[in-house]
Amino acid sequence: xxxxxxxxxxxxxxxxxxxxxxxxxxxxxxxxxxxxxxxxxxxxxxxxxxxxxxxxxxxxxxxxxxxxxxxxxxxxxxxxxxxxxxxxxxxxxxxxxxxxxxxxxxxxxxxxxxxxxxxxxxxxxxxxxxxxxxxxxxxxxxxxxxxxxxxxxxxxxxxxxxxxxxxxxxxxxxxxxxxxxxxxxxxxxxxxxxxxxxxxxxxxxxxxxxxxxxxxxxxxxxxxxxxxxxxxxxxxxxxxxxxxxxxxxxxxxxxxxxxxxxxxxxxxxxxxxxxxxxxxxxxxxxxxxxxxxxxxxxxxxxxxxxxxxxxxxxxxxxxxxxxxxxxxxxxxxxxxxxxxxxxxxxxxxxxxxxxxxxxxxxxxxxxxxxxxxxxxxxxxxxxxxxxxxxxx
Length: 392
Prior knowledge:
The protein is of the alpha/beta class. 38% of the residues lie in helices and 19% in strands.
């Protein structure tokens, strides 16, 4: 199909929940995508952090194909090897106790919120269900995860929103104390605030927050939907901060392109969910779990080290360009935010880069780069060349 044919179908039959760039993707290889007209693009987005191993990775394709030919789905009323192996890999590499599988980041965060409230109810009874989140956070697009999101722009249209959330400022313990109370059961944070602008939390703040949670028996919930699966240069970002969360959500890149997510619980929370208290039809799907098993095998120490090196390379090259519209970079690993200077619009810059063959994202007022973790130096250099020539 041509671009115009696809666009016409989209406009007629698809709800307009997204403002799309004028690109109809057809196929990809590693970190390069071709559209229906045969034009190539260097991809610094990986499907908003999902295609962690890029496109058409042969081992990933084989793992998915083999499992699809054996068992595409079987409900959670029965055992199956793929999800059990995924759970083992996640727990042994993180020190967490067990896992509940889901399908998306928002669903994983919903489950984590339910886990925290049930933990508190089981131990303290009613009246202790409030969760503190941070301003500029983003936790999903369901009614409850929108309520958990600390950005006022998302708190519209869909009233009434779920109650039980209060917001504190990042890196400000006084602000956390100001919104604390006897009704609090947990604190939920992104260690790098993604949609808020790629804003890493400060180490001292995270350490003190973890200590406060332990002291007051609040659960420390870490949303690793975007930061997990190697994105920041460790399997999960919390491992770089030296903390042990009570629960961690994950999704996006863990299955390399298929819908897959979940919640890892620490020892304190391993038995909170019991049969009937939570569930999902597709959670732990065999094909998606087979993909996740392959991704986790690939995310070894060597690849994670390369993620850190590539992220540093991209940041240094971008800052050295000294472009009139861009400022400093920030982030961890290959989760990179780029400041857009006053007088320039990040969405207009992203559109201009797309027009010239480089796919990028926006976040907050800046640009956001989430390249496939396996992007080659040649692909990085091509993308950087487009960035410099287009924005100079």
